[in-house]
Amino acid sequence: MDAVSPGLDPVTLSVLASGLAGIAEEMGTLLVRSAYSSNIKERRDCSAALFDADGRMVAQAAHVPVHLGALYESVRVVAERGAALSSGARSGPESSGAGSGPESFKAGSGPESFKAGSGPESFKARSGPGDVWVLNDPFAGGNHLPDVTLVSPITLPPRAAGRDPKEEGSGAAADWDGEVIGYAATRAHHSDMGGMRPGSMPADSREIFAEGLIIPPVRLIQAGEWQDDILELICANSRTPDLRRGDLRAQAAANRLAGIRLAELAERYGAATVLTAFAEVLRYGERRGRALVALLPDGRYEAASELEGDGADDVDIPLRVAVTVAGDSLTVDFTGTSPAVRGNVNCPRAVTRSACCFALRVLLPDDVPANDGTYAPLTVVTEPGSLVDARRPSAVVAGNVETSQRIADTVLIALGQAVAAARGPGGPEEPAREVHGPADEATVLPVLPAQGQGTMNNLVIGGDGWTYYETLAGGAGASARGPGPSGVHVGMTNTLNTPIEALELEYPLRVERYELDETTAGAGLHPGGAGLVRAIRALAPATLSVLTDRRRHAPQGAAGGGPGAVGHDDVDGEPLPPKASRPLAAGSVVTIRTPGGGGWGPPPAG
Question: Which intervals hold domain Hydantoinase B/oxoprolinase (predicted)?
Answer without folding.
Answer: 9-421, 448-603
